[in-house]
Amino acid sequence: MKKPFSTALRWSSLLVVLLLGTASCKKDEATVAPTPAPAAFDINNISDTYPRVAPLSSSAQWGPYNVHDPAVIKADDGYYYMYSTDVGFGIPDTDLTPGLQVRRSKDLIEWQFVGWVFTNPAAPALGRAYITQRGGTPNRLLWAPYVLKVGSEYRLYYSLASNKLLLSAIGLATATSPTGPWTEKGLVVTTDDSGPNITNGIDPTVIIDQQGQHHLYYGSAFDGIHRVKLDPATGLNAITGDRGPRVAQRGFTGAAINGNIEAPEIIYNKEQNKYYLFISYDWLQTKYNVRVGRADSPEGPFLDFKGRDINLAEDHGPMILAPYQFEGHSGWQGTAHCSVFADASGQYYMAHQGRPGINSFYMDLHVRKIFWTPSGWPVVSPERYAGEDNAAVAQADLTGAWEQITLNYVVIPGYAAEQTTPNFQYSTPLTLAADGTFGGNATGTWTYAAPLLTLRFSNGTSAPVIVQKGRDWENKKATIIFTGLDNNGTAVWGKKK
């Protein structure tokens, strides 16, 4: 579900005023100083909260701010483009600009806000008509887009919900440029409350499989995540009106579902020869976290860490990203609804929203590197990407004091009213000694064969974790990080102090 808390604004044009002075012929008269160049980008100026640039009048400076439900694509012009839900900190929904926000970046660190997909507030007309004709009032704001390129055509799938539960539409717009103009092509999936086993028709993601078939996955709450086949030529539903079979759901405590399930993201990793389906669990402002299942076919079944079908009515792991808190920081919650993509070298990344613990109404863009465990599972860096390379870390550099986070989880059935706590996973001390032992809140032994650090805990648990260079965002300095899964499928993170 997209954020009822974020609000957005009407686009106000920025007026450039040219001040023209009258030139004087007197040699001793002072000349007008040239306009100073914009300040150079400084990663240290990226903040957790952003009250100064939050208003709509400062949208040109939003960059990594006011980001929710991002979808990222690398375009032919060398930029990464990001499309995201209509949100804005402190801005009422009635004032927000509808249309889906657009940003771009060359390096995944410095982002430039470039506008909106739709500039007509009545767009998208087809989605709005579907809802209106069924007695609903469509939302002003658009949610959770997805973008891919097919041939020379960019295809953007949007989500439009309404004042009625389940009355929603996923539509398609196309363009020849990542900045548009975008033209509506049709409705892909529509939902309503006309029967059982219907999920909310929002949160699309698309995969082109190894046989060239196109599949769209979608869903939020209700009946979980569904899949439909698309017509590759048009990008629309291969069977008009088809809502497709369910491919993922989650568990229940008594009669109550353990929390929300939504926001699928699907990729194929050719090195692993697997399809990976990323899914978000729980409430978007607090416990929001990312799970993943994998399959040999885009049709599934997608299996969890234990080899269980994620379409069974139970909670599934691994959970690879969840609210966390390192020392000296308020922590990050709401860490889900991800976009997963690769650069030209095949390095995968995850983009998602993060909400600072100090004020969880702010919405910040996080981009993290993805690494792959020896058993073929994706894991994410405990710190945001900052341009660091993948060069091997020397064993001698590992010894010393670290902070470790284990991504444990507490089930709290329900949604916003019940999930009022982020369930932060807090860092604990870890010290790696040169003699191959470690201590802190846990003890054990360690060995290292770059890039794999194997932690063997005294309780019998072992965790082969991947060591990389990283940035300590909490302390604004370079550091070393590790990430991986233990033998139970629990994510284990570390950051050197």
Report on the architecture of this protein.
The protein is globular. It has two domains: 44-380, Glycosyl hydrolase domain, family 43 (Tachylectin-2, Chain A), CATH 2.115.10.20; 395-496, Beta Barrel (Lipocalin). The chain has one helix spanning 125-133, and strands at residues 71-74, 80-84, 101-105, 112-116, 143-150, 153-160, 168-175, 183-191, 205-208, 214-218, 225-230, 246-248, 252-253, 256-257, 261-269, 274-281, 289-295, 319-321, 324-325, 332-333, 339-342, 348-356, 364-372, 378-380, 400-406, 425-426, 428-432, 437-440, 444-449, 452-457, 462-472, 477-485, 491-496. It contains one helix and 33 strands. The protein is an all-beta fold. The chain has an eight-stranded antiparallel β-barrel. Strands 20, 21, 22, 23 and 24 form a five-stranded antiparallel beta sheet that branches. Strands 1-2-3-4 form a four-stranded antiparallel beta sheet, with no helix packed on it.
